[in-house]
Design a protein that fits this description.
This protein has one helix at about 70-85, and strands spanning about 5-10, 15-25, 30-35, 50-55, 60-65. With about 80 residues, it is an alpha+beta fold.
Length: about 80
């Protein structure tokens, strides 16, 4: 399967190219999340995954940090479902 690369702007305003892993949505369909990797691997050999809340802003899609503890637990659950597939 070919990697899908996308460009994001990080919290410091720096544009980065990352590999899109998935876009996931919670059960209520209220929140969407972008799951991506920067190509880093853990000592175990697994890829390091990142997740950010995906919202629509004035300039298109925007990424937000997940700051709510309950939302973070739900996002981690969704990510674990991706990893177990």
């Amino acid at each position: 399967m070919e990697k899908e690369m996308i460009k994001i702007i990080d919290v410091d305003g720096v544009e980065r190219e990352v590999e899109l892993v998935s876009i996931i949505q919670d059960e209520s369909e209220k929140n969407k999340y972008l799951v991506y990797t920067k190509g880093e691997t853990q000592k175990s050999g697994n890829k390091v995954l990142y997740i950010a809340k995906l919202t629509v802003g004035e300039k298109g899609y925007e990424l937000e940090n997940i700051t709510d503890e309950e939302e973070w637990m739900n996002a981690k659950k969704l990510m674990s479902e991706i990893v177990s597939q």
